[in-house]
Fold each of these.
Amino acid sequence: MSQLFEPNRALSKQARIKNMCEYKELCIQADEDFEGYWDKLAREKIEWFKPYDRVLNEDNAPFYKWFEGGKLNVTHQCLGRHLNSRKNKAAIIWEGEDGTRRIITYLQLFYRVNRLANLLRNKFGIQKGDRVVLYMPMIPEAAFAMLACAKIGAIHSVVFGGFSADALRDRIQDAQAKLVITADGAFRRGKPYMLKPVVDEALREGCECCEKVLIVQRNFEDIEYVRGRDYVYNEIVMQESKYCEPEWMDAEDPLFLLYTSGSTGKPKGVQHSSAGYILWAQYTMEHVFDVKENDTFWCTADVGWITGHTYIVYGPLAMGATTIMYEGVPTFPDVGRWWSMIDEHRVNQFYTAPTAIRLLHKEGADAPSKYDLSSLKVLGTVGEPINPDAWMWYYEQIGGGKCPIVDTWWQTETGGHMITPLPGATPIKPGSATFPLPGIKAEIIDENGNPTPKGEKGFLCITKPWPSMIRNIWGDSDRFVKSYFGDCKKDGKPVYFSGDGAMYDDDGYIVITGRTDDVINVSGHRIGTAEIEAVLGHHENVAEVAVVGRPDPIKGEGIFAYIVIKGTDSISEEVYMIQELNKLIVKEIGNIAKLDAIRFVPGLPKTRSGKIMRRILRSIAKKEPITQDISTLEDPSIVEKIQNLVQF
Ligand code: PRX
């Protein structure tokens, strides 16, 4: 059993949930009257244009409907309703990598969003339900664009700026987006980098749906413009009115799509709702980070991921907080950049990923001591398991031993936090996300749907619906049902399976053990091995390929590819092939999926029916002993041959 850290007393006293009794009390309330629990929250937290008639409709499960009949606009929740009391409060404090700063108040943000919303409506003919792809750097205009879409009921689909033209094209096509909003580029590691040429490349063929491109000028580098298609935001947005009539949306109308990797096939367009999503974004901001009126909140994610959606844009703004947005890398101009920003902006809650903590710990263990980090109250992590070493450094060196760490487990599909400590209540321990939030029925079960005993791994399932859950996979309802409700059952009924394994430790704390499917987690980014295999398989010299994850001290997992090559066995050819294959990956997916290691092997371990035994390949990559029965393989001798070839 690892050490427990009790909550900081001073923080607990002022926290919304002050101790475990209060936490348990809420869990009991939610258990005894599930709908009543959510009903109370939805009434209290959301300013409805029209109240809903029904809390939860389960008639067509797993296509659950929450708050049916209700009407709202998410931007009213995030902006409009704050104007009476917070119009001159900083909504977004942005820092460019070059040190440029912009402070945007709630009133200014309201106007910015309205002008852009009008532009989308009037100039580009965007209407309720249309899809708009955002391919943006970390600049405030990314938030303006998300909110402008929400204002007029358009569905945004933000594509992470690190994805390649091919990956962007796939997402534009799948969503049949009418418009792309992008920027010339931005700054990274002190140099300009470009986005617009990637959009040009993506639109070169097969994107007839996309008629126009709106470009925000950020780095002012030269770019090419396509006449009649491309428009410069900076030149035309101010011509629009600063007032805009919102589209009043049904609670269940989609707010956004966000593509994420699954274990098979192409990335899935995870579809989120309006009311349920915003309710949970706000509620978790309040309870998990315990943000107060004058606090400054900083989440270091990119807006291209769900963490950026919920905890840079929608969550902080829904609760009227001040959110920090930073353009660049954590190591520019040096490894103290983030700590200097915490000092400078007096940040109160700081939320980042274990991979960044590991990197900053390794590269600059003493850097934090040069800054005043005393404003911090709560620290958070997300995206992957955090190792005890990194946890302790974060706790002691960044939090000064007084800030609880909320290790938040959740997913693109869950919309917001699911399993996490509450900073004023939960005794925390390194490596555990602790307990589910009240109202969230997270259970670890075996293949028969029974709870697993302490210390035994099982499937992490959510056995009741929750308001911010994924509603569908865009354009593929069958895949939605199969991907999430096809694997696990409880009491004979399909339940949401996260794809993660987990176990209860001796104290009943939840420990996430990682994905059980063919998804790997590289620097907190989810990547499907099937996607990488599909790309590598396109190369003319690749006969067969299998990709697995391998532990990496900084990235969490690295990408390890086994390749059966056609027509060559010379070493120089292999070196050339490694470069070739990585080029292909960068072109078709992006840098985030670059291979960490490749081994050329004479064959792959397959069952007699031809299924590749990835578990064996995972064990070999991790240098673990093989525990699986290999006698049933088509060619058992292949295992030893591969083991001999995999030298580290
Ligand atoms: O495996 C889990 C891991 O990240 C996956 C979700 O990835 P994504 O949809 O990209 O969302 C990341 C940000 C919410 C999960 O299935 N994961 C997320 N948080 C944690 C985690 N693993 C361990 N501990 C966490 N706190």
Amino acid sequence: MSISQLARSIVDSPTLRLNEEARLLRERGLPVIHLGIGEPKNKAPINAILSAANKLNSGDVKYTPTDGTPALKKAIIKYTEDNYNRIVAPENVIVTNGAKQSLFNVIYSLVDPQDEVIILAPYWVSYPEMVKMVYGVPIIVTPKDGTFYPRMEDILEAVSSYTKAIIVNNPNNPSGMVFPPEFIGELVEFCESKGIYLIMDDIYHRLVFDGTKAVPGYQFTDNDIESTKVIVINGVSKIYGMTGFRIGWVIMNRRMVEVMTNVQAQMTSCPATILQSAAEGALNGLQSYVESLRLTIENNRNVIMQELRSFNGIRVPEPQGTFYCLPDFRAYQENSVELADFLLKKALVVAVPGIEFGIEGHLRLSFSGTVKDITEGIARMKWAIDPESPREIYIGDRKMIRDWL
Ligand code: PLP
């Protein structure tokens, strides 16, 4: 079989792989708890459903403009004005199949072979792979002091004449950290002065807790949309819990939007028509929906923190956003892949190994599910690895006795 070198170099998505493993185990009737998944349990907003249903009922479901329908773009422009305090033109917006395609499209359109893209660890699993997919070089900057974001000095050390862009995900998947405004300010100022693009992946920006704000990069630049180096990526997947609708977008200068539109035209023609209508419905509909989702997730965050605080030896900075936390399990096991495998086998709990996000010894746990799953999942983990926890537990309706500690 002849597989290209490039295709061979791309690893699979560990989170999607774990989803599949969990699905197969559940199909066998096993009571798996999935703390790996990155999507809330909510139903899609009613305005999204009605808007999609109207479009479908019309029977008029054809190609749309490659860069998105004028109506959805209008809704995105209003969203940008309301949430970023920036007025942008339709020519500054391209709608894509999920924020994932937004990111890929930006990277594809910016990065030449050998160009470097700086990625801050812990990072979302797809960033390095996407950079490699265009023959670019991902440069990972890891925090040196055990925190979840590198210091500006460390980032500056990683910059070279090949640096094309820096990717920042705020709030951060997988740590749940919100970057301090001063840090974002410094990054924006640096990037603008050096002509380096700052790709801000804002996909979780309204899922923040305790009154924290994930400040937009735009706040720190007076440059207009045509000249700023700040690129905004966003979408409906996380904030509206509409992961399956696959709608995201990029806000950027006109020339780059034109280029990305050409790229997208050759790849996918346009995002699906009905799903664009759904996203339009969500953006134009009642925004209290986002707040109620946020409150549910904040409550889940409180529950998981309470459970983890009573877990002997585990260190976990409190997430200020997203629906993930990244506890340090090194007190039990340094190798996060082995630990995740062990937990799946013994306790039927899915957790994602930290090494996939560039941080070994940690596990990413999602609190986007139910409170019951969170409490039961952590109880099972304690049972599996903490010798001081009770030796007996019920997993489903089976009583299990720990005989390995
Ligand atoms: N960016 C980050 C940080 C994510 O966690 C995800 C999804 O998990 C995405 C982008 C992709 O979002 P979408 O589902 O809209 O493609």
